[in-house]
Amino acid sequence: MSRRASFVDMALATISTRGARRWDGGHPWVFRSDIVKAPDAPPGAVTVADQRGKTIGTALWSPTSEIALRFVSRTGETELDAEWWTTRLEAAALRRDFPSDVNAYRVVHGEGDGLPSLVVDRYDRWLSMQLLSAGLEAFRPEIIEALVRVLKPHGILARNDASVRAREGLERNVETLMGEVPDAVEVLEHGVRYLAAQRTGQKTGAFLDQRENRVLMGSLARGRALDLFSYHGSFALHLARRADTVEAVDASEHALERASANAALNGLTNISMVHDDAFDALKKRVEAKAQYDTIVIDPPAFAKNKASLDGAVRGYKELFLKGMRLLAPGGVLFAASCSYHLSKTQFLEVVQHAAADSGRRILLRALTAQPLDHPEVVTIPETGYLKGAVLEAGD
Predict the structure, then answer these.
(1) Is 130 helix (H, G, I), strand (E, B) or coil?
(2) Considering the entire predicted model, what is its pTM?
(3) Annotated catalytic sites, by residue?
(4) Which of 90, 101, 220, 290 could serve as a FRET partner for 245 with CA atoms 20 to 30 Å apart?
């Protein structure tokens, strides 16, 4: 048994009262500033005690990270062997119950599934995973063994190219960990098919977190539709099944080439690909007094940190305001944000301010969030980042 997996000689970390209270309140992170006595150990699992010397759990230890400890158990000296990971993965997998026309979904949503810094997405017979902390990386062999046991994939790809790994002192790369993984996998999504780019696509290959929102907007689509920040056309494909025409706008020509291929895969001929900046595209259409019956505005995360929040708010408001001005009477707009630093309350305030400035009567038809395979834990706000609003022009 290796030293990092053994509970017999597991190193001890002592944390402050503030850090212990955070864990007692249901949040697994302990920041560097709350480490009273750091463990004399490489990245891996350590036992954690409070300042009174009471053992309060086992955590993943990342020596160079701002998030120094990530709790995985309320029991000290927990042995994180392949059996432990198998049990946790089985519990997460049991909550993933999808119909036969869905073959891509999240199996492990990090802290949302009690497995901090671990992301595992399933694309048909293959898995794409991310190991996002040094403490977690120490258990790569055990995690792979558990994934093979529980999910029996044909191959496992590590999408370890996320920038957060650099802050953990880890190498950033994309590599095959088991079997063979194709460059593209055909995804089935409630009647729509598209190709997920396993090695080069955003996140682990596709935006799985908007899956149910795409279905929702597809059911509401009609007439003339506009899809901003279309990327590979995932929203546009759903819109095109009911709308007369769809304009898919994206600043990346390569992304639009993939969107065209996805449209052809579904036999859809009513989607036009528009290579343009989304802000510019909206401005042109407002100036031309264009009208749309269905609009989707699903931008990337504008607020990467708290310092960028004010600018992000201005950007979201500009997008949503122009979208509202383009709506035909009775038209429907889906406005979304995936910025964690923009809270749900702030998101709704942006929508409200945009509606007020639009001079129109904007109705709120639905508030949306992440699908069930991206569980949000109420005591861990970082697990919930996706916010959406379905809005209707009431005049």
Answers:
(1) strand
(2) 0.93
(3) 338
(4) 101
